[in-house]
Design goal:
Layout (H helix, E strand, L loop, with lengths): L7 E7 L27 H7 L10 E5 L3 H7 L6 E5 L5 H15 L4 E6 L3 E2 L2 H16 L3 E6 L10 E7 L7 E7 L4 H10 L2 E11 H11 L1 H12 L2 E3 L2 E3 L2 H5 L6 H6 L5 E6 L3 E2 L4 H7 L8 E3 L2 E4 L5 E4 L4 E4 L4 E5 L4 E5 L6 H10 L10 E4 L2 E9 L2 E8 L7 E3 L3 E9 L2 E5 L2 E5 L4 E4 L5 E4 L6 E9 L8 E4 L6
Parallel strand pairs: 1-2, 1-4, 2-3, 3-11, 6-12, 14-16, 15-17, 16-18
Antiparallel strand pairs: 4-9, 5-13, 6-9, 7-8, 7-9, 8-12, 10-11, 18-19, 20-21, 21-22, 22-29, 23-30, 24-27, 24-29, 25-26, 25-28
Organism: Neoroseomonas alkaliterrae
EC number: 2.7.7.13
GO molecular function, one term: isomerase activity
């Protein structure tokens, strides 16, 4: 059998928030947008594994709030970006992708995967995919079962059944097993029949839709209505909000895989990890002679088996063992590696106390670039703003604040009421309270400026937009 997949539609699910990788991963900028397992962001790395001969342009299902991040990271790949108006788990997301795939090309084989997993052996992955695609064309819904390398308690397991006749390397599924305790996980690994459930699936759109109709008809009806009422907005497919929100919130595992008679598994050893915790990231990362991983400006002395990551501030670690230390510009996490699954508990506690650091980074990303707070005072704040070449902010005004813009690098065209002003490096403009204004970058390098705000209220919701290139209200 050829080990090259053909006519495969990659479907990338990018709706997760990666809470267990706080403080790096947060709801506003979750782990799939960060470079964790390589120099490329995980979403981009995932898409790169599914491009070239034999692959169709990808479909990405994502949180509406992340649409411009997805578009930017997948620029040039021809991706169709489907926007979830509300999180309803993987079942409705996959049903929407299947309906769109069937509409475009009946019989399409879909390869469904999360945006935030790591794979070290891509040729082995493609060989497994070719076997799975053959089974999918024969009417199977196939998942990839990862051969365990340790008694991992953070994964669900699949007990593999008999080999399926005529389908090389494909086996029936005896049963799915929830995340086990340590003793049971050790039994699974020793027994050799159990595989990690990777959460990747391969099936034709027609097979998936038939199984949704059989097992979750109410879900399929709502998602069908959401697709029928979808609006095309630039490069995005914006599902009908009311119809999609009314779909049951259920995973593809519970909706279909554990109920269908067509489930199958391809056992594979591809160096897979879902990078579901800092401990998992330590496991797959390159280590020094003492088992330490250092990412960013970090100095580690007399320590063993530690993961130390800094996003900018020099971080020193002395005399620790099996520790995780993660430093961002506004938060620090320090813990024993064995407690990696408890980070979510910490994030929940921060949310309960109303700490914005639980969900937001200091740097906020926008379709035109990003900004970050530098100084916050009484009735004033200072921000650093970056505008991408060719991008522009909305035409807007504020009721409670005035602004002063100073160009650090690049060139800006500023509209201030009826005026149009060209600003170069080290030049500035004052925008009085209530004036209608806009800034754009006409150049070929990023525009960087310092914004000083002053006024009685400095919240981001004090914006009245009159015109916006990106369709924001």
């Amino acid at each position: 059998m050829s080990t090259t997949p053909t006519d495969i539609l990659p479907v990338i699910l990018s709706g997760g928030t990666g809470t267990r990788l706080w403080p790096l991963s947060r709801e506003g900028y979750p782990k799939q947008f960060w470079p964790l397992a390589s120099a490329r962001p995980m979403l981009e790395e995932t898409a790169a594994r599914a491009e070239g001969p034999g692959f169709l342009p990808p479909t990405v299902v994502c949180n509406e709030a992340h649409r411009f991040l997805v578009a930017e990271q997948l620029r040039g790949r021809g991706a169709r970006i489907v926007l979830e108006p509300a999180g309803r788990n993987s079942g409705p997301a996959i049903a929407a992708a299947a309906l769109l795939a069937e509409e475009a090309a009946p019989g399409t084989v879909m390869w469904i995967m999360a945006a935030d997993s790591a794979v070290q052996d891509v040729p082995a992955l493609h060989a497994a995919l070719a076997r799975a695609a053959a089974a999918a064309r024969a009417g199977r819904i196939v998942t990839f079962g990862m051969k365990p390398t340790a008694p991992e308690t953070g994964y669900g397991y699949i007990e593999a059944g008999e080999a399926l006749p005529g389908l090389d390397g494909v086996r029936a599924i005896a049963r799915f097993v929830e995340k086990p305790d340590a003793a049971r996980a050790a039994e699974f690994v020793a027994g050799g029949r159990h595989l990690w459930n990777s959460g990747m699936f391969v099936a034709t759109a027609a097979t998936l839709l038939a199984e949704f109709e059989r097992h979750e008809p109410a879900l399929l009806a709502q998602v069908r209505a959401a697709v029928a009422g979808a609006k095309r907005d630039m490069d995005f497919v914006r599902l009908d909000a009311a119809a999609f929100a009314a779909a049951p919130s259920i995973s593809i595992d519970y909706a279909v895989m554990e109920r269908t008679q067509h489930a199958a598994v391809v056992p594979a050893a591809i160096g897979w990890s879902d990078i579901g915790s800092w401990a998992a990231l330590w496991e797959i990362s390159g280590k020094d002679a003492q088992g330490n991983v250092a990412a960013g400006p970090a100095e580690i002395i007399d320590s063993r088996n530690c993961y130390v990551r800094s996003e900018g501030i020099l971080t020193g670690v002395i005399g620790l063992q099996d520790a995780v230390v993660v430093v961002t510009d506004d938060a620090v996490l320090a813990m024993h590696r064995d407690r990696a699954q408890d980070v979510k508990t910490l994030v929940d506690a921060l949310k309960a106390k109303g700490r914005k650091e639980a969900t937001e980074h200091r740097r906020a990303y926008r379709p035109w670039g990003h900004y970050e707070g530098l100084i916050m005072g009484d009735r004033f704040q200072v921000k650093k703003i970056l505008v991408r070449p060719g991008a522009k902010l909305s035409l807007q005004k504020h009721f409670h604040r005035a602004e002063h813009w100073v160009v650090v690098s690049g060139t800006a065209i500023v509209r201030r009421d009826a005026e149009e002003i060209l600003l170069r490096e080290n030049e500035s403009v004052y925008l009085p309270l209530g004036c209608v204004h806009r800034m754009e970058n006409p150049g070929i390098i990023p525009l960087v400026l310092i914004e000083v705000q002053s006024g009685s209220y400095l919240g981001e919701d004090d914006i009245v937009r009159f015109e916006d290139t990106y369709g924001r209200a």
